[in-house]
Every structure is written in structure tokens, then in C-alpha cells.
Design brief:
The chain is α+β, with helices and mostly antiparallel strands and about 140 residues long. The protein has two domains: about 15-65, no CATH class; about 70-130, no CATH class. The chain has helices spanning about 15-30, 35-45, 50-65, 65-70, 75-90, and strands at about 95-105, 125-130. It has a two-stranded antiparallel sheet with strand order 1-2.
Length: about 140
Amino acid sequence: MMKSLASVGGKWDKWPVLLHIMVFLKCLGSYGNEAYLQKISWAMGISKGSINDSLMRAPLAFVKFQKKVIKWPDEEERKQIGARIKQAHGFVNCVGIIDGTLFPLAFAPTLNAEDYFTRKGNYANMGLSVVMILQRLL
């Protein structure tokens, strides 16, 4: 997974995919003053423009490697997982748990800001996670 995105992005993308994802996650985990690109660039030791470029390219990293990292369990594994969940929580034929969360944005997006406005009165991206009992993130 340490390959670059050169085949997806262009000449700029010689960074390892993991670095794009780390920058993306740092930005998602930052709020308020901590979310300024300049502050993130200081923390990560890369330019503000590179932070912005990485934010634009991180989704490509997820798409490029989705088949390698997102896997549904086979029938036997589903039976084992279902048995564990049934024993622990009483749910029958359950193989995972889905949870959604909002990742707050420090500023309203410049394009289609209304699409990011939440019921809580701020701007955010929606995240949805599927977690299996074996603690693998789908």
C-alpha cells in the first residue's frame, strides 16, 4: 500500500499513498483553529499547498486500494462471526456493525455549502463505518 498515486494523479504525486491518507485523517480530526491548512502544514512539515493537494487526492487513494482493503467474509467466516455476535449480544445472523458520524468542517465549503449543512447547525462531512467483530474495518 506504500505505492504512489502517480498513475492516478500526475507528476506531483510521488508521495506514498499512506502519507495522503495521514494528511486527510489529520484534517478530518482537526477543528476550529487546528483546521487551518497553515497550522496543519507546520505540524506535518509540508507546504500548505501540498496539504490541499493531498486532501484532493486522498479519496483517489481510497478508491485505488478499495479491493485490497475492503473484503467481505466468506460463508464460513460469516458463520463464525455470527456465532460470536449471537453469543455476546444475542443478535442472530449478524456479521458486523454500522455506525455513522459527522466530521465537522471549520468553514463552509465554497461549492454547494448547503449540501454540507447538518441538522446540528454546522458544516460537516458524513462518515459511515462498517466494523466486523474481528475488528476489521470494511
